[in-house]
């Protein structure tokens, strides 16, 4: 028999009607009562907390990371399932993955419809998560997200639809596999850096890490305010391949000089951040000391910054560690030179060694 431990944390999968809306209130055993357990699997439940995942804190997430490690200290456990709200599932799953060095799978799942919904998706998702956690084929894949019959790597996977049953995907990479007919199929193995050791327990507030988005007319006022408020980490959500303005590049340089760890991602759904543009683009932001985060989007870029700050390494080593956690990095695709480009499609302003068509 495969022995799977389910760690219940709340979310829609544990939600019931409260008179004016839904909120998490059901414990793990109530959640599991709705699920068909795959043949050959025994289930144990750990009630960790019961909250809507939009209310999760770093303290909650670190408790989850430690609980996963404690559960897997038992060699008789085959795998772990974490039931979690979908709003911040991508952040918790990635944080667990960054600290997960055990070959046994940790499978995150949840639901888009409440527990007492007559057309709910909790039962199917739980069954597939248990199936995956119990499968030898899932060993060595790290933390996974299982939703609507699809298996995703924690890294890169984000919530892509507010309400649809098929709510998660990595917009920049194919899924890991799928479930069906009582088994799982694994189609690829994800990139995973060396796992981080467990962070020390918090002895005070968690490090402040803020997100700042670039947009038309944006200036670095909010970035500067974050630094003034005591931020130890920042994620700049740039446009395009990770671009902003010269003013942002100057503000990033000042923040880095003040000891703030700065990462750059993009508001574009898919594709890597890349050093293509100057004039406040990713070339200048990287030169100012920011770390480009590959294909990680805002929430997971922030999670990588958090994990770096909690790793206990000297400040001078943090950028290198963050680069390792956010890789692999994809260079810009080879593009034709102006001489090879038809005149009618050439940019009207000089390129900086790469096409301007993505700006």
Automatic annotation (TrEMBL):
Pfam families: Asparaginase, Asparaginase_C. Residues 336-359 have a biased composition (Low complexity). It comes from the Bacteria. GO terms for biological process: asparagine metabolic process. Residues 322-359 are annotated as: Disordered. Residues 3-190 form the L-asparaginase N-terminal domain. GO terms for molecular function: asparaginase activity. InterPro entries: AsnASE_II (IPR004550), Asp/glu_Ase-like_sf (IPR036152), Asparaginase/glutaminase-like (IPR006034), Asparaginase/glutaminase_AS1 (IPR020827), Asparaginase/glutaminase_AS2 (IPR027475), Asparaginase_C (IPR040919), L-asparaginase_C (IPR027473), L-asparaginase_N (IPR027474). Its EC number is 3.5.1.1. The keyword Hydrolase applies. Residues 208-311 form the Asparaginase/glutaminase C-terminal domain. The active site is at 12 (o-isoaspartyl threonine intermediate), 12, 86. Gene3D superfamilies: 3.40.50.40, L-asparaginase, N-terminal domain. Keywords: Hydrolase. Substrate binds at residues 53, 86-87. This is asparaginase.
